[in-house]
């Protein structure tokens, strides 16, 4: 019984260390690269990224790079998550679809800001783990589905914004159909294994306007691992 207060003190100390690591991450990796949206910066300060990476990676959770999360997949670099989130101009009240749940980190960052997050993952064990972890962290506005994100999640659409976090060779047309008027899709497009271009699509009066935002590198969008 005597050891209980010591464990508590150690846990508080560790939590404080993670909080400091997040502050530093936001300052040195995110603000320094030009992200200014206060909602995005606050969400990045808040989400406990170390709870969404494998135990063996906890010490690296706030490092400036992607990390392995098992099943050959990665959790995106914190800056990329902040950048993609800022690109959809997230606001309270929005309904957002994410393709490629992975660790659940991008979904958690979105869920801090918007009303509802729908996220689709094709690798079942990853999706199930993210769902459990996110629930454990108290997120009730994140909904995880296992399936091929090419099809989107039509039952809950249309969406204010759609974020694709795996690199596709083309924009899946079901996603365009599930986007609201005035909404945005952010998606890395390019050949497998090569550098891709991050593309922003905007739906205005039914027409799609495309902007190329520059080179990025993501794990591939797959169609066949179901
Ligand atoms: N957003 C994640 C990063 C994910 S990496 C995070 O924050 O951790 C990309 C993810 O996309 C991988 O988990 C991969 O399995 C998934 N993926 C690839 N193709 C997919 C598809 N067709 N549908 C849904 N998910 C897909």
Features:
seven-stranded mixed beta sheet, 226 residues, alpha/beta, Rossmann fold, two-stranded antiparallel ribbon, 6 helices, binds S-adenosyl-L-homocysteine, 9 strands
Give an account of the 3D structure.
The chain is an alpha/beta fold. The chain has a single domain (6-216), classed as Rossmann fold. Helices cover 32% and strands 26% of the residues. The protein contains six helices and nine strands, in the order ααββαβαβαββαβββ. The chain has helices at residues 3-30, 38-46, 78-87, 105-111, 124-136, 173-177, and strands at 67-70, 73-75, 95-99, 116-121, 142-146, 159-164, 179-189, 196-204, 207-216. A seven-stranded mixed beta sheet has the order 5-4-3-6-7-8-9. The radius of gyration is 18 Å and the shape is globular. The model has no long low-confidence stretch (mean pLDDT 93). Bound molecules: S-adenosyl-L-homocysteine. S-adenosyl-L-homocysteine binds at residues 73-76, 99-100, 102-103, 105-106, 120-123, 126, 148-150, 165-166, 219, 221-223. Keywords: Cytoplasm, Methyltransferase, S-adenosyl-L-methionine, Transferase. GO terms for molecular function: protein-L-isoaspartate (D-aspartate) O-methyltransferase activity. Belongs to the methyltransferase superfamily. L-isoaspartyl/D-aspartyl protein methyltransferase family. It comes from Negadavirga shengliensis. It is an enzyme of class 2 (transferase).
Care to give the gist of this entry?
By secondary structure, this protein is α/β, with parallel strands linked by helices. 32% of the residues lie in helices and 26% in strands. A seven-stranded mixed sheet has the order 5-4-3-6-7-8-9. A two-stranded antiparallel ribbon has the order 1-2.
């Amino acid at each position: 019984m005597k050891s209980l207060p010591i464990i508590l003190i150690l846990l508080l100390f560790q939590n404080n260390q993670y909080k400091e690591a997040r502050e530093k991450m936001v300052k040195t990796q995110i603000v320094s690269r030009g992200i200014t949206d206060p909602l995005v910066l606050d969400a990045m300060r808040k989400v406990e990224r170390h709870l969404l990476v494998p135990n063996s990676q906890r010490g690296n959770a706030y490092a400036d790079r992607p990390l392995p999360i098992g099943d050959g997949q990665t959790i995106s670099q914190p800056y990329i998550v902040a950048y993609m989130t800022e690109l959809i101009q997230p606001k309270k009240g929005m309904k957002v679809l994410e393709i490629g749940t992975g660790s659940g980190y991008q979904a958690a960052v979105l869920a801090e800001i918007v009303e509802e997050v729908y996220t689709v993952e094709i690798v079942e064990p990853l999706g199930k783990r993210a769902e459990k972890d996110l629930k454990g962290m108290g997120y009730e506005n994140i909904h995880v589905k296992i399936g091929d994100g090419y099809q989107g999640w039509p039952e809950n659409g249309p969406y204010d914004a759609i974020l694709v976090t795996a690199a596709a060779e083309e924009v899946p047309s079901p996603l365009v159909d599930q986007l609201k008027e005035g909404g945005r899709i952010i998606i890395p497009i390019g050949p497998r294994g090569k550098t891709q271009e991050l593309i922003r699509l905007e739906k205005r009066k039914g027409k799609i306007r495309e902007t190329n935002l520059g080179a990025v590198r993501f794990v591939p969008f797959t169609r066949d691992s179901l």
